[in-house]
């Protein structure tokens, strides 16, 4: 595959891609493809085109490529565009060519992964576009990802122009309502976190009211998550935060629809975290049409 | 957990449940929960209630239970209803009790899985209900499941009153358009499958037109999938199929919306396969509210 | 390896082959090959011939090839015949060439797998040949396969001219005596299965007597398994089945020896399922003789 | 399970047992047991008896027990005899009781493993018995085990009264013909091994002739493997070996049948290694008959 | 095990503990413990005491406990102190009791893990103690951990009174010299990170000189790592940093010995990251002495 | 990589290397390298040199090479010396070249493994050198290796000129004090082992006193381990052993420092087993300095 289409290992861990592809194929290929085995001549060669059947933002080419490489290394998968591209209905995503058995056997696993990732990227793009041009605010994902597919979900969010929130429970401090309830108050929680959490992490705290917001500010929190605040509360919250010297980051969360995005950004919010990017995305429609191009018997070598 | 709430191993493989739970936790818990570790006293005990925040059909209790058992066996997870139940907003799903660290650490992984499975069950239930009471036709899933979660997706479909289509490429013969394209015709494909496929399988063939339908019938196919037929084509297709002595099963697929379901069933169709059950389901909203109930220091034993 | 010798991924899942090879090598190579390490110069190059030491049907070339590729990619394994071929004593199976360490280290793992698969294929071939030329009936395997090696066992059965029965518990309905005992009768069991099993599956029921056979026929079963019927019972069973309009498939099982095969087929049976194909097969004898061909020190590049 | 029936972790690694059971169930249970799920009421309770259907030596009880524990921990598996016992046709092996779904779902996986292990133990016992009472010589296995099942195969050999040869390539030095061929002679090979192999290992060398035997003796080998020697060669070989001061161990290998065993032992051989113990064993016949004993609905708790 | 001795899942992931224990045992137990199997009666019961053979800080009790639970659940492992405790030579760590086979088989794996973790905790404690009472500065680990054991290494650092640095490449931004070299300067690197890194992370930058330090401060970095600065440079660096309004965190790294720790802290440094905590720790000495206490034959039940 | 630098699969199992590399990368790369991703242009190409920052013996080149191959196959890693080489400060170990993302992402994992292995090899070399030229005695490792890294530790010991002791509990008989305590005496233990252990193994017994030594000699043990004997005891022990006809191997263990090595060898000891080779080794210092060499945009192909 042309390296220009391949995300770097820093972007998307090849171990994660391989793990997911292995899992998807083990689940679908199981003990072999009985239809292809019984119906299709083993030496048939095929050529096909993956095409967008609706407008979308692309994400996951290297994952689809890896599916076919794992199924049969003789199949070539040649992308025609790169992750992050905006496609119109009918645009060609990639061309595939090789032994028909391999192409047919990998088709559904590749599409399940690709359609899911494009779905996430496409929905993210809509949220990011709703911010308007050159936005100061960020759209981020949450941990409401598909179990087992988090790395791919989060990559797709970035391909759609979004940012990532914390990756997992060990990579950031986020004090939520249940932590506060169990620990006995916002101030105590923030101070404990400050004392013991790694110095590489900011301390973020979710607040449910302006009173909790004041308490968190007083405790010197780095990031405030305004949870399910209405517009008036959000405006007031941002005002109080901006009045502080150390300028904490303002995140809003809960009930963020495409319609509210621009208004929230205009209120001075820095981060809009949207669980729906991943748990509300639907698979977009990508098709594959094949034609026979010959058989090995008729090809040299 | 009360055995009445537990699906049997024949219903849902415990190996699959464990595998998915392991994966979800590895991904989210990673190197530990830095927030809980730094903020919550290690000997705090908590009690909480999982409650439906919108109407839903329940699926996945044993998966959520397994998350907490894996995180900390001292946490008890007690369901109040069983998979398949219809819940109203506010209904209690389960009560959880034990060390606060374990409860907080497992919360998101349990909810991600449970909300996804309930989402699939709820959407399936809507399709099944649209068939009307005591329907003769079935709603089934497809292979458009979440990679790595197929067993759970398919269990959720059944919890919602749906049926399963083939599980994977090795468990049924389904000749699709690309097989026909590569193999050179419906008749040849069906006959080859008949000769070589296991005798435990019916031979299913997707047809794109009434001509292909006739060809498949002539070849003695067992199940016909009418792909993207409009209503008139479907009526005519069913008429031609019902005229045959061996009574093949009639499946329709493609573009099946809630609105069309009853009409399609009335046309005499046996099976409506709906990819959206799994690839179009969104996570439903389930909440967990915790309170502290003491600490180990204050409990005997 | 010449692609003509390689089964397609639809025939034999590359994930299964890799999994088995990984397992076999982990078990045998363990922490390294102490004999080869201490005895053989690390730069020695060797060439060897795998040859049949008795007549056999070949199966498993790609598995043996994969062993050596995993041990040392510089070893070349070149088949001289293809899976399914009938070999006489002395026939060459494959030629191997490369670093002597890699060849010696992989030898036993490759042979263990290849000899087992050839053993299954060879025994299957004997059963299939016993049916006579152009048989209407099939010889099939059962689930009595080697734990962990089912995909390979079943592939070997097909290489020997046999067919596969169901792959696993989730890929077909087969109501056995213990199901009937627990469920309370053949009729109830068949009807329950019909209502709930996927529409892609035929319903098969094992019967122990002609009375059970009548009950299963009345319930509209698709496949009948006559379990341990003697010849007279089999003849009468087939007669009753053939009298039905919907023509169920007739399978016989239990005590099927090479001697009875032709007679059973002549009685009109469709399927003879033979557990011995896999649980009674013995490894056939294949030898490898090596010679030194030089050392890297003496080769350019 | 009564601990008296359980092999210690030193005898049979619980990690190996769990790994094999996991593999066998993943392969057979796959996405669930569609027959049991659709046919058997989920709350049915059953009781059954595993009984020998032919004479055999028992091996593998803890493996069968582990299958059911993994499928459903509510199933109890109670052995009536211990590994190593000689059973007559009809003897009870174990009693099983619990939810019918769990029993039916685990049955085949448990039997496949148990029947294989008993097959190996039974065949080994025949070879050991052929040595006569209180034999000085040993019957041992080889590395010709079932890929992935070596630990179980070797345990079964011991349950049948046999001994183990080396476990894998890293646990002993055994210089075979191909090592000699590549390394340039018996003496060089033995001396190199002596210099570099761990001091915990004896040095064993396979010899193809009396000349090679003399060369190996001169090189001070610890164990001699007489490969495919006829009786006269064996007698002469043993004579030459016994004439040495350091008394190497004498092993014979190749073509060792039940008929030759006593004679070979009488010639003064120490070890008879028999590949057939594992690669030639067939599964013995063990049956399970079930009856319904009630349902959970009718049981308290 | 008494829950007071058990770290919570937020502290130490049970998945990581199980994974490591599984790995250690697979590696050491392999195909069984041939010495114990051949030498020790299978029904012997033993009791033993783990005792410190030198002064140490304890870490890893739950890991050692898990080794024995995995080997034989009938073995009880009862800690007498908790992780983090300072032990003198001769202090009892834990008492073990149960079947001798299980105790002997797990001993080395348990000790390898426990001695390593105590070694890390003990060395960390020495560094922390060198800071003096109630220190404002922190001692932290680095990513120079034992491959595969990072979660355990980092837990041990905390048990010794240290703090953790970032866990892995995805959990924090740390711009090092090679990043600066490839990216073309400190300022560009910091600004790019600020734009794209998750808002939960501080931006840390390693600087090699006071000029780079100024550049990083100007770019608004959150954490400065002074790499291999001598004392004079460190004093001047801290002075410049403290002059900034936003008060970045000051970390020193490279060549930090026990002797320099107090002085560096006195210079106003916040964090001292010490690779030696993990890559320079040696296993401390813990002994196990066993005695026989009977046999199962002589115990009821 | 030049094959001359690659250990053969008999030396170092490629499965072990892959397993460890996979583990190390999964742990460190996790969900991607956030610093490299945000800071470094994705098309930057870099070149760097791995150089020794202190004198050392090299071990682990193929492991480091495998890290980069796994991260990004476009990165080339070219060793300049071979495992076993003695390096001075400043000597070049290897040159690396390719996409900067891959190089930066794999750097720490490769160094952690390489520095550890070189640390073991270097320490071993010091012990071996202390024996003097052409020593008759061996320095060996023990089972006190890093959990999960045993194969690499033991390879590194050999690269440093040492020998391996037994690999694991199943590959040799070593009767230790706890076995003797549980079994009731040295003589009984040795005789039981002789009867039941594989004939490929020598029987080794640890002795704590000259009386136990006499008992072990009388029982005909093959290898004696003198545990924590002082010099006088060692001299007397060797004298008694050399007086026996069958010449057992003499191993000393416990408290073996660099200072005592030559003296112990001079006393006639055969084997000095030193746990510190692996549990006391520290990572040596190897550096990597990178420079940018261009970008893909500017390279053809």
DSSP summary, beta strand count of chain A = 12
Main sheet properties of chain A: 6 strands, parallel
Task: Identify the CATH class of the largest domain in chain A.
Answer: Alpha Beta
Oligomer: homohexamer
CATH superfamily of the largest domain in chain A: Aldolase class I
Tally of separate domains of chain A:
2
Describe the structure.
Six copies of one chain form a homohexamer. With 301 residues, chain A is of the alpha/beta class. Chain A folds into two domains: 3-128 and 282-298, Alpha-Beta Complex (Aldehyde Oxidoreductase, domain 3); 133-279, TIM Barrel. The first copy, chain A, has eleven helices and twelve strands. In chain A, the strands form three sheets. In chain A, strands 6-11-10-9-8-7 form a six-stranded parallel sheet. Chain A has a four-stranded antiparallel sheet with strand order 3-5-1-12, covered by helices on one side. A two-stranded antiparallel ribbon of chain A has the order 2-4. In chain A, α10 links the parallel β10 (249-253) and β11. In chain A, α1 crosses α3 and α8 packs parallel to α9 (231-242). The longest helix of chain A has 31 residues, at 100-130. The first copy, chain A, is elongated, with a radius of gyration of 23 Å. Chains in contact: A-B, A-C, A-E, A-F, B-C, B-D, B-E, C-D, C-F, D-E, D-F, E-F.
Keywords, please?
12 strands, elongated, Aldehyde Oxidoreductase, domain 3, six-stranded parallel beta sheet, 2 domains, 301 residues, homohexamer, TIM Barrel, alpha/beta, four-stranded antiparallel beta sheet
